[in-house]
Design brief:
Elements (H helix, E strand, L loop, with lengths): L1 E6 L12 H8 E2 L8 E6 L5 E5 L6 E2 L15 E7 L5 E5 L2 E5 L4 E4 L6 E5 L8 E7 L7 E3 L5 E5 L8 E7 L10 E7 L5 E2 L4 E2 L3 E8 L7 E7 L2 E7 L3 E5 L6 E4 L4 E8 L8 E2 L7
Parallel strand pairs: 1-3
Antiparallel strand pairs: 2-21, 3-4, 4-11, 5-10, 6-9, 6-11, 7-8, 7-10, 9-12, 13-14, 14-15, 15-23, 16-22, 17-24, 18-21, 18-23, 19-20, 19-22
Bound molecules: the ligand O=C(O)C(=O)C[C@H](O)C(=O)CO.
Function: Catalyzes the isomerization of 5-dehydro-4-deoxy-D-glucuronate to 3-deoxy-D-glycero-2,5-hexodiulosonate.
EC number: 5.3.1.17
GO molecular function: 4-deoxy-L-threo-5-hexosulose-uronate ketol-isomerase activity; zinc ion binding
Length: 280
């Protein structure tokens, strides 16, 4: 089963009038992974599509472009498909099969037509997570393993923000048109991601939190630096972060997250740091 929902986003001023439920319905995609389903979300934030795809006995094909107005989903788009489960899976793009171990990401270039996802073991299915954005040029499809990703360490244990970012879809690792995608892991005992926070007015971003115990939550902060709000987020929930919003969080237990971005450029360092003492 493939279902699509839409998120429209809004302006910074709107969040003043939004209740917790309003914020959640606009900026949070809950429960993206369901066995046997593809749950797709079309956002009006730089037209990013998010998807959670969990094939069990049968493969799931996501190549149909009807919901985005083209014959095939990737006619005018590129994408990254991460396997966030503990089981292996495969993604077959126009007859070429790519095997994804846990934490591998497949880059799918513009022009792919048939895209079929399968799990090696239906009892322990792959959890595929898709970020797809409009693309002006085509780059070759490419599997990026966890070992091939560029790892960067940030933070300090003493500030509870020690973490490793792995950049997968990134100019130094695997070229794309405008998509950037990676995975951040917190060290045991560290709870803060993206601390100190930043803004990037030229890119939107989506965070998908995963690998959390069912009872744990991340308190994700969003909004303008001087007017923040929070979203309480569980495993398998994705936060949409408009270009005007900070995006950072603290977890009540271990967690990891996938970040995906698109916008005007691919310069990861094109950010404006926000000193913590400016947050309100
Ligand atoms: O923990 C972090 O710091 C991140 O993972 C930051 C994200 O990559 C990000 O927000 C990029 O803009």
């Amino acid at each position: 089963m493939i279902t699509w929902t839409t998120r429209y986003g809004g302006s910074p001023a709107m969040i003043d009038r939004m209740t917790a439920a309003d914020l959640r319905s606009e900026y949070l995609v809950e429960g993206i992974f369901a066995p046997g389903e593809a749950r797709m979300t079309y956002t009006h934030l730089d037209r990013m599509v998010l998807g959670g795809i969990v094939p069990t006995e049968q493969p799931i094909a996501i190549g149909d472009g009807g919901p985005v107005g083209t014959a095939h989903l990737f006619d005018a788009r590129e994408g990254g498909i991460a396997n966030l489960g503990t089981g292996r899976g495969s993604v077959t793009v126009d007859g070429q099969r790519h095997e994804l171990a846990p934490r591998d990401i497949l880059y799918v270039g513009r022009g792919a037509r048939q895209v079929e996802l399968a799990s090696a073991d239906p009892g322990n299915p792959a959890l595929f997570y898709l970020n797809s954005v409009p693309a002006g040029v085509s780059h070759p499809h490419r599997l990026i393993t966890r070992a091939e990703a560029k790892a960067v360490r940030f933070g300090e244990a003493g500030r509870a923000n020690l973490r490793t970012l792995r950049m997968y879809i990134h100019p130094e690792v695997a070229p794309s048109c405008l998509l950037l995608m990676g995975i951040t892991d917190l060290e045991p005992g560290s709870v803060w991601n993206t601390m100190p926070p930043h803004l990037h007015e030229r890119r939107m971003e989506a965070y998908l939190y995963f690998d959390m115990a069912p009872q744990d939550r991340v308190i994700h902060l969003m909004g303008r630096p001087d007017n923040t709000r929070h979203l309480v987020v569980g495993s398998g929930d994705a936060v949409l972060s408009p270009a005007w919003s900070i995006h950072m969080g603290a977890g009540t237990g271990p967690y990891a997250f996938v970040w995906g971005m698109t916008g005007e450029n691919q310069v990861y360092q094109d950010v404006d740091p926000v000193p913590v003492d400016r947050l309100k």
